[in-house]
Amino acid sequence: MNTKDRPAPKVIFFDVNETLLDLKPLKQSVAKALGGHDELVGLWFSTMLHSSLVDTLTGKYHTFPEIGVAALQMVAESKGIELSKEEAELAVVPVFGKLPPHPDVFEGLKELKKQGFLLVSLTNSSDAGVKTQFENAGLINIIDKRLTVGGIHKFKPDLEVYRWALVQMNVKASEAMLVAAHGWDIAGANAAGLQTVFVARPGNVLYPLAEKPDHVVKDIKELASLLATPSQ
After folding, report:
1. What is the rounded CA–CA span in Å between residue 204 and residue 181?
2. Angle at Cα 90 formed by Cα 33 and Cα 100, nearest 5°?
C-alpha cells in the first residue's frame, strides 16, 4: 500500500467491467465460442485491450463490444477455429449487457454514498452499453453519473481520458480517486495524478513497473470501510 498523505476525494471514479461487474458469464461465453478452450479467454481479453489502444493511437474509434467481437474473430482465426462474425457477436454483445455485479458491490457502493462521496463510473464501454449494464445489474440509481470513453473517443489508459473525466466533474486530479481491478487502469490514473485504489479481484495483478496505488483492497465493501476510517 502506498503511504501518500492524500485528502479524502471529492469524486470516486469506478471502472466497471470486472471492478463492479463480474466478467465470468462473458468469459464462459467466449470460451464456448472458441470450442470450449478456456485457456484462450485470457488471449481474447488481452487482444481486445491491445486493439482498443490501436484505435486510440491511430485516431479511430469503435465501441468496446465491437472491439471484443473483432478480437474474438482474431483469436479464433489464429487458432484455426471456425467462427463467423455473427457467432462472435452473439457470444459477446448480449452477454456484455447482462453482467451481474460482484456480491460486495451493492453494499459497498451504498455505504460510500452514505458517507457522502460522489460516485462516477468511468469505463471503456459505450454510453448506451453502460446504461444497459447498470439497468440490468440494478446499479442505475446508485452511481451518480456515468462517464464513458464515447465522450472522448479514446480508451483508458490514455491519460487524456482521465484528464477529460476530471474536467467533466470539475475537480483537480488530487481531489479524485480511481477504483479499478486492472493494473493498466491504475497505472494510467496514477500517471494522470489521481488517487488510486486497486481492487484485487481473483486473477488480477498490478503492473510491477508502474507506480503503486494508494491502497489495495479485496472488494468495494473494504474500500468503504477504508474511507470511513479517519487518517492517522
Report:
1. 7
2. 90
C-alpha cell at position 231: 487518517
Single-letter code of the amino acid located at 222: E
How does pLDDT run across 197-218, given as a tens digit for each residue? 999 999 999 999 999 999 999 9
Gap between the Cα atoms of 161 and 183, Å rounded: 16
Residue 102 in grid coordinates: 460482484
In this structure, what are the phi and psi dihedrals at residue 164, rounded to the nearest 5 degrees?
-65, -45
Q: What is the CA radius of gyration of the chain?
A: 17
Are 176 and 9 spatial neighbours (Cβ–Cβ below 8 Å)?
yes
Question: What values do phi and psi take at 48, rounded to 5?
Answer: -65, -45
Query: Distance between alpha carbon 23 and the CA centroid of its chain, in Å?
Result: 11
- Give pTM, 2 decimals: 0.94
**Strands annotated E in the chain:** 11-14, 118-123, 145-148, 176-180, 195-199, 215-217
| Residue 138 predicted with pLDDT over 60 | yes
C-alpha separations of 62 from 74, 94, 131, 134, 187 in Å: 16, 17, 17, 21, 23
- Tens of pLDDT along 86-123? 999 999 999 999 999 999 999 999 999 999 999 999 99
Which three cell numbers, joined as nine digits, stand for 31? 470460451
Strands (E), 44-203: 118-123, 145-148, 176-180, 195-199
